[in-house]
Design brief:
There is one protein chain. This protein is α+β, with helices and mostly antiparallel strands. The protein has one domain. It contains 6 helices and 4 strands. It is globular.
Length: 142
Amino acid sequence: MCISAQLLLGDMISTQISGARGNGLAQPISFNTDGVAGQQPAVAMHPDDIDFLRPLAAKYIGWKTPEQALTHPLRVVAQVMNIGEHEDLQAMSGALGDDTLRSALHHAEAGQFNARSWAYWHCRLGLAGVDAVPPLPQRQFV
């Protein structure tokens, strides 16, 4: 799976995901953060990936409707990575690919991961060695 991010004018980042769902010619669905500070960047994901995430959003983001949760699909991915059942993690990794999981770590917000999950995923995805895991994201006050 290939992920290329490009900064668009304004406050939106678009991530084009292709490869796992075919040749990348399908129109991605784009989601915006509406310029709210501290929110994850907007992400364009293949419609099949969004369909895959819908039941996981319903299962792991209980305080929002799946449609509300899927306006920030990397939050759904991060939540499953943090508290997901083994079967859901395996299915998500296979369907979305490790690059999407890396992107969820790269764009993680404070509080999305516990220390154990943060360390596990950095090691599992080859982003850090056991003794070299980066610190968890922290809130920053201006």
